[in-house]
Write a structure and sequence with these properties.
Blueprint lengths: L3 H9 L8 E4 L14 E6 L7 H11 L2 E6 L3 H10 L8 E6 L3 H6 L3 E2 L22 E13 H6 L20 E4 L5 H14 L4 H10 L3 E3 L2 H8 L4 H5 L6 E5 L2 H7 L10 E3 L5 E10 L5 H11 L2 H6 L1 H4 L2 E2 L8 H6 L11 H20 L1
Parallel strand pairs: 2-3, 2-4, 7-8, 7-9
Antiparallel strand pairs: 1-3, 4-11, 5-11, 6-9, 6-10, 6-11, 6-12
Helix pairs in contact: 6-7, 7-15
Amino acid sequence: MSITKKVTALAVGLGMAGGLAACGSSSDGDGGGSGGSKSVTLVSHNSWAVSKDVIAAFEKSSGYKVRVLEDGDAGQAVNKAVLTKDNPQGDVFFGVDNTLLSRALDNGLFQPYEAKGLDRVDAAYRTDTDHRVTPVDTGDICVNYDKAYFSEHKLTPPDSFDDLIEPEYKELLVTENAAGSSPGLGFLLGTAAEYGDDGWQDYWKKLKANGVKVVDSWEQAYNEEFSGSSGGKKAKGDRPLVVSYASSPPAEVIYADPQPATAPTGVAQGTCFRQVEYAGLLSNARNPEGGKALLDFMLSKQFQEDLPLNMFVYPVREDAAIPEAFRKFGPPAEKPRTMDPAKIADNRDQWVKSWTSLVVR
């Protein structure tokens, strides 16, 4: 899940929206829904954010008014979209990532469409040869650390999964529930990629014995429990390690006033799992032509270059420019853990069930 509103939370302490929210507007006379030809409705998790002038450019060039329905965390949004696929809430769904992709595809959530500009996307992200989904952005789920804490305690920050189970890091890490949180699930998959089918549970037993704390959401972990974030400092968080994103440090710099010369948080590079987010044309979309136009636009250079400083993710388009703050404070992991989508599909639900029984109960 991208961290747009999570980034907003860094600045103003705003929590995740709980219910379904509507953004933008629909054209007069179309009833406010996606049934009218003058509007196109995007359904998303609640971290969607795009610059107003970018959306305005699409609306001017296409003639469609964009309407956005935000519906909780990524897992919640995907589940609801599956349940309503015969009568979808919109035309395009954005925010299903590689950890949940099989759930959407196996349930027939999308209809095929090959978006214009797909040839400019890194081939590594074009995993669906049937073009039911379009890759939009990518990022790395990684453990972040509070630089001040480790400096004050003269302790070297962890840099690997193995480090996290060492005694010196006891009761320092907070992570999200893998059953309901996108970064929590990504972190679980990262450990499965690292230790294999037979080793990840033993690793989590050791991590639990070392005092890992599990909370429901990224917002709670990062903005309440983590001592290194602006929100965590206000909340007097006492955990100097948190599962977040490689792009969290530049957010801490960009939204600080005054801006520091260096990021107050760092990334444990050996703990990263590569996340890819997709968008797709919903089956039974009322305005499929508008949906196709929106998908084309989401691969445009203008939209792709708008992503980093709004959703704090990396574009998938190879020729899209990257902001200097990202290159300086939040470069992508050099060797992130990855996992074949088919393997995720075969194991995800059972792994989450086992993880819940092992770690939470």
